[in-house]
Amino acid sequence: MPATFTKSALLLALMMGLGHAQAASPISPVELATKDGIPHPAVIAHRGASFDAPESTAAAYKVARDLGADYLELDLQRSKDGVLFALHDNNLQRTTDVATKFPERKDSPANEFTWKELQTLDAGSWFNTAYPERARPGFVGLKILSLDEIIKIAEGNPQHKPGLYIETKEPKQFPGIEADLKDKLLDKGWLSSVGSKLGKSNTGVGQGKGRVVLQTFETASLKELQKEMPNTPKILLLWVGEGSIEPKSKVTFAESGEPTKAAYYAKQEPKDAAEFEKWVDEAKSLGAIGTGPSAQLTALGDQSYSDLVKPEMNQLTHDKGLLVHVYTVDEPVDFEKVMSAGVDGIFTNRAAELLKFYKRWPSSSVQDLLQDNGY
Ligand code: G3P
Ligand code: CA
Known about the structure:
Bound molecules: SN-glycerol-3-phosphate, calcium ion
């Protein structure tokens, strides 16, 4: 346990007036989640089943749905002509053939392309090149998906209907995207439950009160989301760095001499206990029902960040009546670690593995589901 979060340090912070004594939440995390119609623990398929198929494509979302994931996660962007779609990166280089189709605009942000232009791109072939051991001919030519199309996928399996876990990505680039999202969800009937409640339905969270969870790193966007959709559960994503939790050390990655970003982040921690608590309080005051902190992964790698799910951090968040959904965890050793630390749900690229970890056995293998869905 790092010195910043020992009991004595927390006591000192309280004595210094950096926090105030926090009575434990009168209801448990399971009750907190259930109240909002959110499964506990929640399986959040990060960009779909993105270990097994190209991220944020129909293949990834259909497999995650058919495996039985609780949520399909997506990063929301808006095309030049106003179509809401899913893409993680700021530009199209990593996950499409934009460099071939639009060489002069290959570095342009995705929101400078019309929907018609975006639909000309191949969002699947990159995966076959990057991961030849998981490559499939059926991934070639997969398209970027609109939010409409992802909603249709979420509704498309009569046996299991996952919810949607939607991140406003770089919201400063998309003024008004929160209102656009509300209009779309309203239009599609996704801002109200459709009858069955969590626990009383075997068709999944996508039918109930917690069918949409909204997430963002940006407090300005969280405020807009709360204004537009006050009754929809929201999560404030957390990390140590610019725009979020202030680090203890101001040494940059370049100055650090660390071999990888993951090694650098592993040594980054909040400035002090009060700084961490400030962000949890901010989440609560802006109407969030929980936080989405980063994890440090055992094998490090490019999804490994600062460890913000230490047991005492999760306890503090729970004591304030908030849930903890950690990103992005793919290995059993880390599922075990973060669950032992007390998180309430996990963003994962490997929904099949997380479901197995929870002993929620998928009815078919990933390979069979890919084949059944035409990939
Ligand atoms: O949304 C949770 C997690 O996805 C945040 O990180 O960069 O993968 O969107 P990122
Ligand atoms: Ca995300």
